[in-house]
Amino acid sequence: MTTHVLADTTALTGRSLRHITRSPDTIITTAVTPVAIMLLFVFVFAGAIDTGTGTGTSTGAYATYLLPGILLITIASGVAYTSVRLFNDLQGGIVERFQSMPIARPSVLWSHVLTSLVANVSALVIVVGVALLMGFRSGANVLEWLAVAGILILFTLALTWLAVIAGLSASSVDGAGAFAYPLIFLPFVSSAFVPTESMPGPVRAFADNQPVTSIVNAIRDLLAGHPAGSDIWVALAWCAGILIVSYLAATAIYRRKFA
Asked: How far apart are CA 222 and CA 142, in angstroms?
């Protein structure tokens, strides 16, 4: 049974990836908005922003401070395409056609999830490359880079399963993609751009207790080669919690839809 699921998932993932390779603008578009935000903040606002570490006077230092939040925005932008691709498959009757074939049911959703993971990792590489050109520098060793990669992959999987829920539940293609807008906005009310200490009381309370802040802080410390402290465990707990809940909800909706 496991071999059957793996083989079907591999085949369907290959199908989805071929669609992306024929239209690489999807990955480029995913990276364009985060890169534009990074360019705006680093070259326009960096001198006026006080991060509490003296980075306001250096565009390279602020690019280093800013990058973790930009990476999360990249992922939030990318998962919207997963929701749209799944919605289009549903509307086109492709998923129903798969149901009539001897294909393992979980493979239909997992193929979209794995495609999202590949596409988002590609977009993240582009964003990091641009950040390096803008002055981003890291003091992290190999293990710390692997830890950053692990957090980003876990975060991508968590948001992708949220995208699956949106793709299964949406009534229009615009609705399928629109769910990502709040996710893209969330880093702006976190420690991604400025320390939360500079925010008004109620805003700071929200920023300190939402998932993006702990994830950004953990990635920032790891990239700097500093001990991540409790932030990394809070970040992993948020990512794992969102992943488990969204996975269970998505699979339940899928089963109910094609019972």
From this structure: 10
Which residues, including other chains, have CB under 8 Å from residue 140's CB and lie 6 or more apart?
148, 222, 223, 224, 225
Q: How many domains does the chain have?
A: 1
Rounded Cα gap, residues 147 and 6, in angstroms? 26
Domain with 125 in it: 2-257
For 19, other C-beta atoms within 10 Å of its C-beta total: 12
Cα–Cα distance measured from residue 191 to residue 213, given in angstroms and rounded to the nearest whole number:
5
Answer whether residue 53 shows pLDDT above 60: no
Tens of pLDDT, residues 69-128: 999 999 999 898 889 888 887 887 776 677 666 677 778 888 889 988 998 999 999 999
Half-sphere exposure of 190 (CA within 13 A, CB side): 24
Mean of the pLDDT values across residues 16-20? 76
Alpha-carbon torsion 119, 83, 38, 230, what sign?
A: negative
Phi, psi of 192 (to 5 degrees): -65, -40
Give the model's pLDDT for residue 129: 94
- Measure the CA–CA gap between 124 and 131, rounded to whole angstroms: 10
Structural contact between residues 138 and 98, judged by C-beta atoms closer than 8 angstroms: no
Q: Give the whole-angstrom CA distance, residue 224 versus residue 38.
A: 19
**Which among 155, 173, 242, 180 has a CA at the least distance from the CA of 33?**
180
